[in-house]
TrEMBL record:
Superkingdom of origin organism: Eukaryota
Protein name (record): Phosphatidylserine decarboxylase 2
Keyword Lyase attributed: yes
Organism name: Rhizophagus irregularis (strain DAOM 197198w)
Pfam families: PS_Dcarbxylase
Coiled-coil region list: none
GO term, biological process aspect, one: phospholipid biosynthetic process
GO molecular function ontology, one term from the record: phosphatidylserine decarboxylase activity
Alphabetized UniProt keyword annotations: Decarboxylase, Lyase
């Protein structure tokens, strides 16, 4: 398999897709054209390979028009999906247009309305997601590129009867693993806490006892804001905040990290966001990479603003545990499943369901994603996960020492 390339992106003969035309009209009506031309210029002058075929605002419109109906493909690096998303956001990360977007900063809940451009980003993600829900989003040719990209490990997942053709890309993206490939550590020890997702551990932060605040790069983020004023928000005062992130090639279903009763399950609307930086590769070329660390300098606490799910589980041996699957960039849907029943985007609260450690509780659609776990102070949770190490669903990441 050869390496995929970005572009060139021809101007559509029949006009732009409605979502792209809306951006074009927005830029023209607000007299932003010079600012966006500057953003494209600044992005290209970095010399990144991803911007080779985007040298003006018209090229960027053409790229977006291609992206909204893009049939995802991969290359041997397993990073082409990310490259496409990074290219879109890299232009929007430039200083000349950043102020047109809702800031990533603490606020009260509910947060202020999104700016016109940030609202457009959410709608673009939804438009892209609508196409990725159709069978046209997965072809025989595109499917083969994911089998060839080794880090996707497609052979370790369940294939639907009759194969993947006729299914959507989002169905493929949220594929289930083969039985036995994610054993659960300590199934008979309820104090053992396991990874809720195939993800890379990014760190653990203390939550202030007095005001339930997590400090990230000097910014005070409240747990109440993260949990959208859940009645359980104050229960995590003095506890721990744990963050990990998923790559597009990771398994994108989440599972209960502990045994217990579901106290709350809902979907919280929010922004779509991705901070992008330039990295020089060993071959001397500059490529775009996403910044995913929780305390990244320009986006510390972005998880508090993203579209996200919330599942609060009350475990007899661990106490209350909040699980937050968090959408990133083009993840246009966080879908909650409790006891195997999809509750979807309507935020329906499912209380009283009993889950076992390792039971499926949610899944993501297209994109990279994050997972956050909150623990109570009295749980005396000891984090065993190693920084920047990748863990699979069911692998132990912590243990609780709650008083009997």
């Amino acid at each position: 398999m050869t390496k995929q390339s970005l572009g060139p992106f021809p101007c559509p003969f029949d006009g732009y897709q409605p979502i792209v035309k809306r951006l074009k009209d927005m830029i023209e009506c607000n007299n932003w054209k010079d600012k966006f031309e500057q953003a494209v210029y600044d992005a290209q002058k970095t010399g990144v390979e991803d911007m080779t075929n985007i040298s003006c605002l018209t090229d960027y419109y053409n790229f977006l028009n291609y992206l909204v109906l893009w049939v995802p493909k991969e290359d041997e690096t397993g990073t082409f999906v990310y490259n496409m998303l990074c290219t879109m956001y890299f232009v929007l990360d430039q200083n000349s247009v950043k102020d047109f977007q809702s800031p990533i900063k603490p606020s009260s809940y509910p947060p202020p309305p999104l700016t016109e451009l940030s609202k457009w980003l959410v709608d673009f993600a939804n438009a892209m997601g609508q196409f990725l829900d159709t069978p046209q989003s997965l072809t025989e040719e595109s499917l083969q590129t994911f089998y060839t990209a080794e880090n996707y490990n497609v052979d370790s997942y369940v294939v639907p009867q009759g194969g993947w053709l006729g299914h959507s890309f989002n169905e493929f993206f949220a594929r289930k693993f083969l039985p036995g490939t994610r054993p659960i550590d300590g199934p008979s020890n309820p104090a053992i806490i396991v990874s809720a997702a195939d993800s890379t551990f990014d760190g653990c932060w203390n939550i202030d006892q007095c005001d339930s605040i997590v400090h990230l790069k000097g910014l005070p983020w409240t747990i109440g804001e993260l949990l959208a004023d859940s009645k359980y928000a104050n229960d995590f005062a003095g506890g721990k905040f744990m963050h990990a992130f998923l790559a597009p090639y990771d398994y994108h279903r989440q599972h209960a990290p502990v045994d217990g009763k579901v106290l709350e399950a809902k979907v919280i609307p929010g922004q779509t966001y991705l901070e992008v930086n330039v990295k020089k590769h060993s071959n001397g070329k500059h490529r775009l990479i996403p910044t995913r660390a929780l305390d990244a300098p320009d986006s510390a606490g972005y998880q508090f603003c993203q579209a996200r799910g919330l599942i609060v589980i009350d475990s007899p041996k661990v106490g209350k545990v909040a699980v937050l699957p968090i959408g990133m960039a083009q993840v246009s849907s966080v879908v909650l499943c409790v006891k195997g029943e999809e509750i979807g985007k309507d935020g329906k609260i499912v209380e009283g369901d009993e889950v076992k450690k390792g039971d499926e509780i949610s899944y993501f659609q297209f994109g990279g994603s994050d997972i956050v776990l909150l623990f109570q102070a009295q749980s005396k949770v000891k984090i065993l996960a190693e920084l920047h190490k990748h863990y699979r669903v069911g692998e132990q990441i912590a243990i609780a020492h709650i008083a009997e």
